[in-house]
Amino acid sequence: MSASKKTSRAAATPAPARNAVRPGGRILADALVAQGITHAFAVPGESYLDVLDGLYAVRQRVQLTTCRFEAGAVNMAEAFGKLTGRPAAAFVTRGPGACHAAIGVHIAMQDSTPLLLFVGQIPFAETDRESFQEVDYRKMFAPLAKWVTQIDAPERIPELVAHAVDVATTGRPGPVVIALSEEMQKRMAQVADLKRAEVSVPYPDPAAILKLQAMLARARRPLAILGGGGWSEEGRADIGRFLAAHEIPVAVSFRRQGHYPGTADNFVGDLGVGSDPALVARAKEADLVLAIGSRLSEAVTQGYTLFEPAGAPIVHVFPEQAEIGRVFRPALGIATDLNAFARAVARLAPGKIAWGEWTRSLRALRLETARAPEYQGALNLARVMQTLQRMLEPDAVLTTDAGNFATWVARFLHLSDGQRFLGPTNGAMGYGVPAAIGAKLAEPGRQAVAFVGDGGFLMTGQEIATAFHHGVAPIVLVFNNAMYGTIRMYQERTYPGRVSGTALTNPDFARYIEAFGGHGERVERTEQFAPAFERAVASGKPAVIELVMDTEQITSRARISDLRASAKVRKPAKRPARLAAASRRKPRR
Question: 139 and 33 in one domain?
Fold first, then answer.
């Protein structure tokens, strides 16, 4: 069951306002309950022992997940926020713990995901002495988070936690970082809890909706680019009704495949790293671009080359005014909550549709690029992805790490309407496994499948221990090509044949998961995958399926030999004539 269709524990049993004398650690735990926070992910530290004690007191209302690494903990919380639309809390200790957690904050910021990160801090009286593990978190996290603050007085905990939730969830969603000074957590205070605020979201200007309708009526080759964070189930359904009724071709932005069903007749692919070159070429022919929720980032716009400064008119719909027009000047900018926008346009009746053939041609391109080639080697990953598509549960949650392996997922696997896809748009490795665990903890009844390369798996794959500890069973597909594949690809393009720093030595991944008590499979041939996946599902345990790749097949479209053959021979730069002449002179004795 999706998060929007079920009542959260916090909503069902609202926390009563308290006015008793309590220590800061307990006030903080009660503040989380009052603000509807139901899940916390933590690596424990002595800098927030009193908060841990407070969380023990509210353990029936806030589920505390003990993790093995701070980056994994924050990635679990980030995936929870992506899937449910509500922030989870992550707790880490000061100094090294906060530094390890920073990557998850960066993911949440670039992916527009609501998140609360609490960091234990040194005693306030020791500030600016370079005390043990002292860091100024306002400076450290300033470019990574929507807001950074520190709580030094327990009386302010309800106020600041409530505001943190409001900041994280309104406008463009994002992460908030809160440092907790050590002595504050111990101090006793008498302060009332604050209830959650009902914040009305910004609705689109009706005049802007009418202008959008008029622009669409004049278009002959429209293209919608759907992206962003903060979508609700209702919002996805509403925007889907609008785009389908108007037969507008839809491309999702980088790693946003869960926003629109890949099986729909007007889904035309993804715009990001590894996109279909044919789709990129046709996107440049569009005469109207509807950028709905997408930031039009570097990855989406192919290095900011997809659109010309004075090219096709762009309608940019985004919840933050400052993002509209940051790079590409729109013909119409609409600053609004995305779900409110979807609700408004879902009511628009389609007029005469003059682009039916355009949509059909883009869809045909998508179906053609998703046709499985006859790759060399025993394991055809295209057919594996198509097999997996047929075997997934209708509400499965898929998570992905960063790496070249993900091009097979994006190209050959179409999600259905009830399935979700969680991936880091900032290209962070180590996301896939913790994200699958976070998704499974958020909604235990849904199937969770992670895609990860061999490099990314050994960054945070140890978090599989967290899955065992808390009784959830994700299935992890490890794409093993014994290299950092993306970097090797760029290496071969620029310095063909000069392999440096990208080769890897790996363990037996099936035996790795078996050491934890889980289910392991090793797949070397295409026909082995379906029974291996069936056994993994039937085991009911956390599972790893190792996919042994052809190391020569560096992407879904190229082999290493292809890259080397097409790479230009590097020539030494021509030296100035004066230097060249000097090099020919006889040396003086």
Answer: yes
